[in-house]
From TrEMBL, chain A:
GO process terms (BP): response to antibiotic
Chief subcellular location: membrane
Protein known as: ABC-2 type transport system ATP-binding protein
GO molecular function ontology, one term from the record: ATP binding
Natural source organism: Geodermatophilus telluris
Stored SUPFAM superfamilies: P-loop containing nucleoside triphosphate hydrolases (SSF52540)
Automatic annotation (TrEMBL), chain B:
Protein name stated in the entry: Transport permease protein
Family: Belongs to the ABC-2 integral membrane protein family.
GO molecular function: ABC-type transporter activity
Organism of origin: Geodermatophilus telluris
Taxonomic lineage of the native organism: Bacteria, Bacillati, Actinomycetota, Actinomycetes, Geodermatophilales
Family annotation (PANTHER family): NODULATION PROTEIN J
Superkingdom to which the source organism belongs: Bacteria
Keywords recorded for this protein, A-Z: Antibiotic resistance, Cell membrane, Membrane, Transmembrane, Transmembrane helix, Transport
Length: 295, 268
């Protein structure tokens, strides 16, 4: 897996990485939530962290954001230890928490203007509203927004400071399919502006659509890191060819589906009945990797 | 790489002050609860109770000190405990902690909010007192006493409110915890009835807490000195008022520094 840029335990921290983690451990009482995590995230990369509830996603992200103390290991975020990050460091980050940005009597625009004033070089609040599609609701109070609009406001608050690194913790939970597509377009435009992003999500299609690499967390450890199309050996996994012959459904696993189908085609005078060729989906390999449903 | 400079503290303090004022005055419940409640109390009790406390002092004149105490406690102790607990449980504080906003700016905003609400409450109460009950306003040096007693009392209660907010899980539970405590303290501190009618042992209990000393300091402002004889010590004890309120400020500050959290307890 060296080709995927995944560090091995004991490697030195990578000074050029946006995020560099070695041997991260976090415990809650006698439960170990994160158990020796090694990870480098390159500058400009979108990295998706997948995993079932309780796998340690939010814990990991909140250690990187400086919200939680770690119990072991070394962490650098934009070259700084999050446990010692000051104002200047925080000004380089954008954080979209799973829990959102709270309730307020202020309007969407006022919230963004207030947030912008904490930063050295903020984005124009009007442009940010445009970017997240909330221009029409600029005058609305935060509490009158729909669930999806609130989440877009959270994202707007996360990016108004012009962060170099953006954390997105389950940003599209509660979005309808169209809102998710719009959100994906927003993430891609932020990537084009050079923003590094660490995304946690439950949606595998979201990780596949957005991420340069995905990491699967299971039981506090990274089960694998890979580009989405190669996760779990997906790219080279045997394909499953299925068809109907003599009135029965037949299936075969093959590493060379093209040759297999060519041979198959020769056995039939016309179309091969009910022919289908499939590779394991991201969901198949993911479920296999995390070992079934939550412990 | 020379990053652009972070905004000055003054600028961020200014933003926080504006945010806090809007948050308060746009929320109908908090305005009614904090601002209108003491006024209604003054109108209701002033209409019902009619004592002569001697030296030509009627109940409304006596009650001005009490109801202003209640107003200051509402603007500081109750307001801080309830709203900061709410901001902690709904994620507002956690979200702010992830920005370069300095922590001091958050508290500066709260101080401006408490001052604005307390001043608005006091002005409203004095206006109603003069117009409806014809109370005598303080004169001369009493204004100075009025100012320092109010500021010191508000400071002690603000710090205590911030500390108490940490004990409560939500704004709602803070309201249910702090409101009865404040009412009981006000009752035993001679806010709603003359302090010399409070049983002696309760007076001793009240003397531990800041509300009693705030009320006593304000009585010295609104009552003629002849009535100082009705105080437990036979005088207004302004020196002790300053000492006790100052001590509560120190204790409150220590509690705040030791206990304040930007996120819920279970997420450490």
């Amino acid at each position: 897996m060296v080709a995927d840029g995944r560090p091995r335990p004991g490697d030195p921290l990578d000074p050029d990485a946006a995020i560099s983690v070695r041997g991260l451990v976090k415990r809650y009482g006698d439960r170990t939530a994160v158990d020796g995590l090694d990870l480098d995230i390159r500058r400009g990369e979108i990295f998706a962290l997948l995993g079932p509830n309780g796998a340690g996603k939010t814990t990991t992200v909140e250690v990187l954001e400086g919200y939680r103390r770690r119990d072991g290991g070394e962490v650098r975020v934009l070259g700084v230890d999050p446990a010692r990050g000051g104002r200047r460091w925080k000004a380089e980050l954008g954080i979209v928490l799973q829990s959102g940005a709270g309730d307020s009597q202020l309007s969407v625009r006022e919230l963004l203007e207030a947030r912008a004033s904490y930063y050295a070089d903020p984005r124009d609040p009007g442009e940010v509203l445009e970017l997240v599609g909330l221009t029409e609701r600029a005058g609305a109070r935060g509490r009158t927004l729909s669930g999806g609009q609130r989440r877009r406001l959270d994202v707007a608050l996360g990016i108004v400071g012009r962060p170099r690194l953006l954390f997105l913790d389950e940003p599209t939970t509660g979005f309808d399919p169209e809102a998710r597509r719009q959100f994906w377009a927003l993430i891609r435009s932020l990537r084009d502006l050079g923003t590094t992003m660490l995304l946690t999500t439950h949606y595998l299609d979201e990780a596949e659509a957005l991420a340069d690499r995905v990491g699967v967390l299971a039981r506090g450890q990274l089960a694998e890191v890979a580009v989405p199309t190669a996760l779990g050996g997906r790219g080279s996994a045997p394909a499953v060819v299925s068809w109907t012959e003599d009135g029965a459904r037949r299936t075969a696993e093959t590493a060379t589906p093209t040759a297999f189908v060519r041979d198959l085609a020769a056995r039939f005078p016309g179309e091969v009945p009910d022919l289908a060729v499939s590779r394991p989906t991201l969901e198949d390999v993911y479920l296999k990797m995390i070992g079934g449903p939550d412990e | 790489m020379s990053a652009p400079a972070l905004p000055s503290l003054t600028r961020v303090y200014g933003t926080r002050a504006r945010v806090e004022l809007r948050e308060f005055f746009r929320q109908r419940e908090s305005v009614v609860f904090t601002l209108a409640f003491p006024v209604l109390l003054l109108l209701a009790l002033g209409a019902v109770l009619d004592y002569d406390l001697g030296a030509g002092v009627g109940f409304p004149q006596y009650f001005m000190a009490g109801v202003i105490t209640a107003g200051i406690v509402g603007a500081s102790l109750q307001n801080m405990a309830i709203h900061i607990a709410g901001e902690r449980s709904d994620g507002t504080l956690k979200s702010l902690a992830g920005t370069p906003m300095p922590a001091s700016a958050y508290f500066a905003g709260k101080v401006v909010q408490v001052l604005a609400v307390a001043v608005a409450t006091i002005v409203l109460l004095l206006g109603v007192g003069v117009l409806v009950y014809g109370i005598d306003l303080p004169s001369g040096g009493d204004w100075l006493t009025f100012a320092w007693v109010s500021v010191l009392g508000a400071a002690a209660c603000t710090l205590l409110g911030i500390a108490v907010s940490t004990l409560c899980r939500t704004g709602r539970s803070a309201s249910a915890t702090v409101t009865p405590i404040a009412l009981v303290l006000e009752f035993v501190s001679g806010v709603f009835l003359p302090f010399d009618q409070v049983p002696g042992w309760l007076q001793d209990v009240a003397a531990v807490f800041p509300v009693k000393w705030l009320a006593q300091g304000l009585r010295s402002v609104f009552l003629p000195d002849a009535l100082a004889a009705q105080e437990p010590a036979g005088s207004w004890e302004l020196g002790r008022v300053a000492l006790v309120l100052g001590a509560w400020c120190v204790l409150g500050l220590v509690l705040c520094v030791l206990t304040f959290r930007w996120q819920d307890r279970d997420t450490r």
